[in-house]
Amino acid sequence: MNIPDAPPVPPPAGDGHYLTFALAGLRCALPREVVRELLPLPRLSRPPALPAAVAGFVNLGGDALPVLALAHLLGLDVASATAEDALYRHIVVVGGNGVARAGLLVDRVLDLLRVAPGQLRPVPPEETLNGCVTAGLAMPDGFIAVLDPARILLARERDSLEELTRRARARLDEWAG
Questions:
Q1: Backbone angles phi, psi at 10, to 5 degrees
Q2: Which helix (H) or strand (E) holds 91?
Q3: CA distance 152 to 16
Q4: What pLDDT, on a 0 to 100 scale, did the predictor assign at position 172?
Q5: What sign for the dihedral angle of Cα 126, 131, 135, 139?
Q6: Which pLDDT belongs to residue 85?
């Protein structure tokens, strides 16, 4: 991805901190305000007939948390991933600020960065990964794509995920009783 030599993007609301992570060969970031938790990759429950974009569900404190296969949703090539890569995967739990609670499966969490407003750059439309990348971080060691978690799922996909999550919760409740 190329960052044009354009004026900086106006800073989004928040404190300027971004959680960075690796995803299918890219470095990406999420605003800290939407990140609730970081989990090492636990065993996921994957009921039959889940769409490929849903990696599964994790029992998080007695509640079924849907985990999304973020690379798949963004149309990124995951064929080059190795078994060793899977050892270091994380789930980034997002929610709040207009974002539904869900887990995002990433290759590896890298860092929490404080970003000066001038480091945010516009991204050409053809490099927004289906409209999910809202800006780029111009860092000395390269580009970091800033994702807007509210844009990751379409409205219809959000509705379907809510129904799948309701069923997973009911299944957990059935086994707990």
A1: -55, 135
A2: strand 90-96
A3: 21
A4: 87
A5: negative
A6: 66
- Whole-prediction pTM value? 0.86
The answer to whether 130 and 53 have CB atoms below 8 angstroms apart is: no
70 against 77, higher pLDDT: 70
DSSP structure string for 47-78: -TT--TTEEEEEEETTEEEEEEEHHHHTT---
Contacts 24+ apart (CB under 8 A), 67-72: 67/91, 67/102, 67/103, 67/104, 67/105, 68/102, 68/103, 68/104, 68/105, 68/152, 68/153, 68/161, 69/105, 70/23, 70/104, 70/105, 70/106, 70/152, 71/23, 71/24, 71/105, 71/107
Q: Would you list the domain boundaries of the chain?
A: 17-176
Interval 138-154: pLDDT, tens: 888 888 999 999 999 88
DSSP string, 99-114: EEEEEEEESEEEEEEE
Kind of pairing, strands 63-69 and 99-106? Answer: parallel
CATH architecture for residues 17-176: Beta Barrel (2.40)
